[in-house]
Amino acid sequence: MPQRTRIKALAFDVFGTVVDWRSGIARGAGPVLARLGRSDIDPHAFADGWRRRYQPALEEVRSGRRPFVILDTLHREALEDLLRHHAIDPATLDEDTLVDLIHAWHRLDPWPDSVDGLTRLKTRYPIVTLSNGNIALMLDMARRAHLPWDAILGAEVSRIYKPLPESYLATARMLAVEPAELCLVAAHHSDLAAARAAGLQTAYVDRPLEYGGRPAPDADDGQDWEFSVDSLTRLADELCR
Amino acid sequence: MPQRTRIKALAFDVFGTVVDWRSGIARGAGPVLARLGRSDIDPHAFADGWRRRYQPALEEVRSGRRPFVILDTLHREALEDLLRHHAIDPATLDEDTLVDLIHAWHRLDPWPDSVDGLTRLKTRYPIVTLSNGNIALMLDMARRAHLPWDAILGAEVSRIYKPLPESYLATARMLAVEPAELCLVAAHHSDLAAARAAGLQTAYVDRPLEYGGRPAPDADDGQDWEFSVDSLTRLADELCR
């Protein structure tokens, strides 16, 4: 077996890997939907719809057809689209309510093992975000949830969205490490596959509750990742021994 | 007296304000100069010469005559120039020694009050770097010195060097705050003056030992800053009460 390159830094996907976006968004959306008299809409389905809806907008930016805009902006557009889909005119919500709902993405809870796992991993490796989330979003989330990042990197810093190869390569470059010295930690096979294609090492974290127990869209795309664990504390067991 | 805008985040100059670059560089350069048989060169004067020497290169980038390059690169060029000034051919130093010397900037010690002050300020405000230092430099320094930044912003993230107005404005934008809601904390009147001109609030930290007890180049450029303290713990006393 060939010797693995020594890992010098860990970059983390965040939504789904470190925090539970579905429960957090449902928690934020529930009371708003209730105030609108729309308790018929399941807040968890609303969260799923929101997450799904900004993928086409991300693709517009990735393709270069649209200049870079931050995720908060794409979240807002996707929310307005989702509201219209449910026959709710976004203009009937006041601006504070809209912004507060968009900021539900800033207030997501970590999975139970995340803070302990990150704290232990940080003793050995620099730990940075490599998320499509913007800086203010990641910073608000980290302060609220006590995520001890060494740096917030990712889309807004490199002005490019995953899974384009340059998003991974720019992060390695900013950390002054070779791509093979950087390990992406993610719950999504698609993200890991793109990172591997760019030359990074890969650590898969199984998060069976990300979609409320239903399989992830890319559940069948697994590969033989360098690491495969079911929590960040287990990753710390493997990487910090 | 007009009501001040509420501060929502603190951005810090780092070299001189949070860490003691002169002692750290002298500590790194001393043994190298000794090995070269050049104990006649005072390591502190060497540090002063190095710091002074990259200002023209910074100006080349600020003016747009040269595309953005990170500070590690400018540090290297300035070092080679300084060595030649002392009749030392940079090629006589092996690459590891050169890189290690450049990385002395990654291993600077904080002033005695910095970690405690930042830790207390962080309980109330997001604290970010707004330094001309690059990301890997700031990250290495923070891990070694236990500086608890919420995010590493500044030159490499905004692709622009202080004191250009956009360096301050881009930082406010990335934090999703208005310029007047962001306070720059710095030991240099010139930096603070540029931040104020861009609309930021300002906190001056007196660091009489930055130049080994001699006055700073901009010592006479003081203004009536919003805050003026002699340590980051004193700033925490003022801002966290």
TrEMBL record, chains A, B:
Top-rank taxon: Bacteria
Role, per record: Catalyzes the hydrolytic dehalogenation of small (S)-2-haloalkanoic acids to yield the corresponding (R)-2-hydroxyalkanoic acids.
InterPro entries: 2-HAD, HAD-like_sf, HAD-SF_hydro_IA, HAD_sf, PGP-like_dom2, S-2-haloacid_dehalogenase
Keyword Hydrolase: yes
Catalysed conversion reaction: an (S)-2-haloacid + H2O = a (2R)-2-hydroxycarboxylate + a halide anion + H(+)
Name this protein carries in UniProt: (S)-2-haloacid dehalogenase
Keywords associated with the record: Hydrolase
Family note: Belongs to the HAD-like hydrolase superfamily. S-2-haloalkanoic acid dehalogenase family.
Pfam families: Hydrolase
E.C. code: 3.8.1.2
